[in-house]
Amino acid sequence: MGNTFGQVFRVTTFGESHGPAVGVVIDGCPPRLPIVLAEIQTQLDRRKPGQSRLTTQRQESDQVEILSGVDQGLSTGTSLAMMIRNADARSKDYSEMRDKYRPSHADYSYQAKYGIRSVEGGGRASARETAARVAAGAVADQILRNAGIEVLAWVESVQDLRAEVNDETVTAEDIEANDVRCPDAAMAERMFERIDAVRKDGDSVGGVLRAIARGVPPHLGAPVFDKLEADLAKAMLSIPASKGFEVGSGFAGTTMLGSEHNDAFYADASGRIRTRSNHSGGIQGGISNGELITLRVAFKPTATILKEQETVTKDGKSTTIKGRGRHDPCVLPRAVPIVEAMFRLVLADHLLMHRAQVASI
Ligand SMILES: Cc1cc2nc3c(=O)[nH]c(=O)nc-3n(C[C@H](O)[C@H](O)[C@H](O)COP(=O)(O)O)c2cc1C
Predict the structure, then answer these.
(1) Rounded to the nearest 10 degrees, how much is the dihedral formed by the CA atoms of 215, 161, 247, 335?
(2) Residue among 218, 155, 225 nearest 190 (CA)
(3) Is the beta carbon of 56 within 6 A of some atom in ligand 1?
(4) Given a cut of 70, is residue 361 above it in pLDDT?
(5) Of 181, 198, 244, 340, which has the highest C-beta tally within 10 A?
(6) Phi and psi at residue 152, in whole multiples of 5°?
(7) H-run or E-run covering 226
């Protein structure tokens, strides 16, 4: 249970951190969609380990293989399966973890629930699983691009270091311009130094990702349980190490007056209904209103650190543990393509749901 996401564009991921492979099966992909392997690979390369000294040094080429559902570069409408083989698995780094639980990782809770777990690399809880989501997100992107929708995410803050970025003008190139994936170049440098200093000290840090979607028409979403922001929240909070989600003004809106917070409507020169401000983050009543969709996702400091910490053994004896193996001192730079992928999966799913129910619009 819990391995499938989406209703029409339905993705099921499989695989563990140190197993033979991770992968995804997409059911419900529309037929005759161009599936360009190089574009899927580009997204995977943004997520893969070993990109800079700020990321885990595990060496994985993350080459994607398409196993089914594509013929002569086009989707066939049948189940589309993709696989990424694991190459650099080092089980010896994890021998201590068989008996000891890493603080704030998934070791104890998986063991408590199932009475068994894949220990090496955190098994299914490892961010390695998100490679499969990124591959699926690249397919969803094809659907969105055909509909004129663009999704971007970037690092907005690392601890107290916060970038100022213009949602309206930021580009994918600005985001990829540095290893941190923060489009504010001066702040990116300070963030790099902070993460690097923390890494040298064997510790970790967290921060906030900003994500936006442009060109979303005013009709994606559904009432009550399948509100667009509810599905986005689930998508984002399903990413390992995510701890918070905001849409639009989010928690900051709680300090404003209604008269300040309301997004006044007007009709622009072409007669299109717009809002003067966008505290709603482009979603009202669970349905997109045609403005920019704006989100924030909070990520905690990486659980595994190279410092001695208090824990217990499987049989409850108190002990200490010091992280070994290769870990990200800050997950944010690699989380950018994952947040984009989950955003795209939700929007593609809602686009296809809209077409299924309200096809003529
Ligand atoms: C891109 C990315 C990389 C990550 N790398 C690590 C890592 O190297 N070490 C680690 O302990 N956790 C890492 N995590 C987070 C763990 O997978 C996560 O904290 C763990 O599964 C427990 O889940 P929770 O934090 O959501 O409760 C990473 C997360 C992401 C998104």
Answers:
(1) 70
(2) 155
(3) yes
(4) no
(5) 340
(6) -135, 145
(7) none
State whether the beta carbon of 331 lies less than 6 angstroms from ligand 1. Answer: yes
Give 125 Cα–ligand 1 centroid separation in angstroms. 7
269, exposed or middle or buried, with CB in 10 Å at 0-12, 13-18, 19+?
exposed
Ligand 1 neighbour 17 (Cβ under 6 A): no
* Distance linking the first and last C-alpha atoms of the chain: 35
User: Residue 30, Cβ neighbours under 10 Å: how many?
Assistant: 17
Mapping DSSP onto H, E and C, the string for 84-105 reads EECCCCCHHHHHHHHCECCCCC
- 209, 335 contact by CB (below 8 A): yes
Tell me which CATH code domain 4-357 carries.
Answer: 3.60.150.10
Give, in order, the Cα–Cα distances in Å from 58 to each of 137, 281, 343: 23, 37, 26
Going by CA atoms, what residue is nearest to atom 7 of ligand 1?
Answer: 327
Q: With bands split at pLDDT 50, 70 and 90, how would you rate the model's confidence at 324?
A: confident
Model confidence at 88: pLDDT above 80: no
* Separation CA 313–CA 101 (nearest Å): 7
Are the C-beta atoms of residues 46 and 137 closer than 8 Å to each other?
A: no
Bridge partners (DSSP) listed for residue 213: 151, 293
